[in-house]
Amino acid sequence: LQSQLRDPSLLKADALINGQWVGGGSRFAVEDPATGQVLSEVADLSAADAEAAVNAANTAWAGWRAKTAKERAAILMRWYQLLVQHADDLARILTAEQGKPLVEARGEILYGASFVEWYAEQGKRVYGETIPTTDPNKRYLVVQQPIGVCAAITPWNFPLAMITRKVAPALAAGCTVVIKPAEQTPLSALAAAELAQRAGMPSGVLNVLSASADNSIAIGKLLCDSPLVRHLSFTGSTEVGRILMTQSGSTVKKLALELGGNAPFIVFDDADIESAVEGAMVSKYRNAGQTCVCANRFYVQEGVYEAFVTRLAEKAAALQVGHGFEPGVQQGPLIDGQALEKVERHVADAKALGARVLQGGERLGERFFQPTVLADVTPAMLCSREETFGPVAPVFRFQTEEQVIALANATEFGLASYVYTRDISRVFRVSEALEYGMVGVNTGLLATAEVPFGGVKQSGLGREGGRQGMDEYLEAKYICLGDV
Ligand code: ADP
């Protein structure tokens, strides 16, 4: 991998604490999910290292918060420019450890970098307010202050973007951060940290703790228990989110949780079917179906059902599957064997309960799964309740608007949802009735740096991106001035 990079020094195997690269007590292997080949032996940090990082971040906080927003913005802008300049190398690192096709990886680098740019600008607009007084001798003021040391625990499916989406607003607000990237994908995080160093980030302001699965649990506990850590932002599974929420009770920590989804993708009879199929393809097969906003359940109205599934199956059949570095590849491997087994389990269960396999349905060797389309799917099947997190599109049939809203909402999750219709009144009725944090209308892609991304119900707490994503990292302080 190193020999394929224009700037080989971006491939870091050590962690970053207080501006120093540290090797840790032991190392763990990071593999290419497409081949199983070991890419690197990365520093495996312990809870004691995490404590050192938290202390460094806490010490660095005083200097960082004392800078003006404009000074912080200048450093963030340099970081943004370096991320963009090195997009090709960063994309190679990302594809190598995560598996997604190189074009998608490059897209993620630019998307990830866009949070740094946007929050560098937004940091200059953290306004307080004055409130009309009810007492002639007093004045009421509100100022916004950085919350303090922030911890970020991130997943493997977007190894760069899930970091910048948390870290950029935190840094712009004047907070310092300790990042614990996923054990499968620490290399992207370390490369981004190297570029932050080059951008002039002061020591201790941004720390990255690479760690194996076992040490990640211990580090997670330390970060939750530490009274110095004032905010914890996590993206990952609902199960781990629950653990972190429980652990954070002892320190009454502010939490942002971006957890699992079970996104419905609804196609009404009056939709533009070609556009709906297009949207379905990006929403479902991007990142091999491993995104938390991936359409998990397709609901198609009976009048267009056969036309939709036939076209979707044709398009899915045409997807090129292979190693992300190969030109033309549109779908890479799944992250690991367990992920592959889950997809197989969902397909086997659906078949046993009467689903028709229109396309795919089988694994391709040890690490890949065919782009799959299942028709005649029913609510009794596993894939209607659980997030498949793989390239499987289960398609349900529905009759009425009322019925599909009830079906779509019948889940404990509430992250993304999608609706295809050309009836403007229905757009409003359905968007308002869906119990989801986000609704894509006539589009299968909705995430961007400027908007609040997040879920309701057991999909999580808080919003990332946009003006709301900055509020996470600020505390409103009320100042009451008397004797006026
Ligand atoms: P996935 O199922 O997609 O791998 P996880 O929720 O297991 O997602 O992992 C997301 C992140 O949470 C990773 O960085 C992982 O190391 C971390 N993690 C997993 N278990 C724990 C835990 N008990 N405490 C803290 N972090 C954890």
TrEMBL record:
Stored Gene3D superfamilies: Aldehyde Dehydrogenase, Chain A, domain 1, Aldehyde Dehydrogenase, Chain A, domain 2
Superkingdom: Bacteria
One Pfam entry name: Aldedh
InterPro entries per UniProt: Ald_DH/histidinol_DH (IPR016161), Ald_DH_C (IPR016163), Ald_DH_CS_CYS (IPR016160), Ald_DH_CS_GLU (IPR029510), Ald_DH_N (IPR016162), Aldehyde_DH_dom (IPR015590), Aldehyde_DH_Superfamily (IPR050740), Succ_semiAld_DH (IPR010102)
Enzyme class: oxidoreductase
Protein's UniProt keywords contain DNA-binding: no
EC code(s) of this entry: 1.2.1.-
Coiled coil ranges: none
Active site: 258
Limits of the Aldehyde dehydrogenase domain: 21-479
An example Gene Ontology molecular-function term: oxidoreductase activity
This protein's UniProt keywords: Oxidoreductase
Family per similarity comment: Belongs to the aldehyde dehydrogenase family.
Protein's name in the database: NAD-dependent succinate-semialdehyde dehydrogenase
Organism encoding this protein: Roseateles rivi
